[in-house]
Amino acid sequence: MRIGELSRRTGVNTHQLRYYETQGLLEADRSANGYREYDENAVLRVKQIRHLLGAGLSSEDIAYLLPCAVGETPELLGCPELLAAMRTRLQRLNDQMEKLARSRDALVDYIDAAERVAGENYPPFDGSDRQPVPA
C-alpha cells in the first residue's frame, strides 16, 4: 500500500509516517516510480508506535523496544534490555514530575507573597481556582 492509504488506515498523517521512517521505526520499499510501498504489517507497526509514543517514549526508545513488541497495544515481551530502558524512562519522568512540583510550589509561594503585599482580599490560594499565567 502507498503512504496515503497507510495514513488513512492508521489516522496518522503522511508527514509523521515519513518521520517514523527516518527514525528507523517504519520501513518502506520503493516502487519503480519511487513511491513508498508498505506491507500489511505497517498498519500494526504504526499503531504500536502511536501507543508507545503515547506512553511518553521517545522515537529512540521506541526503535529499541519495537523488536519486543507484539500486538496493537502492544505487549512488550521479555527482551532483557527492555526493562532497563523502561526503568530509565520512568526515572526521567519521575524526575521531571518532581521538578514540576517544586516549580509549582515556588510559584504558589510567590503568588501568596504578592497577594499579601498587594493588601487585597484574595481568597486563600490553593492552586486550583486560578487560570495559568500566560508565558
UniProtKB/TrEMBL annotation:
InterPro entries: DNA-bd_dom_put_sf, MerR-type_HTH_dom, MerR_fam. Pfam families: MerR_1. GO terms for molecular function: DNA binding; DNA-binding transcription factor activity. Residues 83-110 form a coiled coil. The lineage of its organism: Bacteria, Bacillati, Actinomycetota, Actinomycetes, Pseudonocardiales. The keyword Cell division does not apply. PANTHER family: MERR-FAMILY TRANSCRIPTIONAL REGULATOR, REDOX-CYCLING DRUG-SENSING TRANSCRIPTIONAL ACTIVATOR SOXR. Keywords: Coiled coil, DNA-binding, Repressor, Transcription, Transcription regulation. This is MerR family transcriptional regulator.
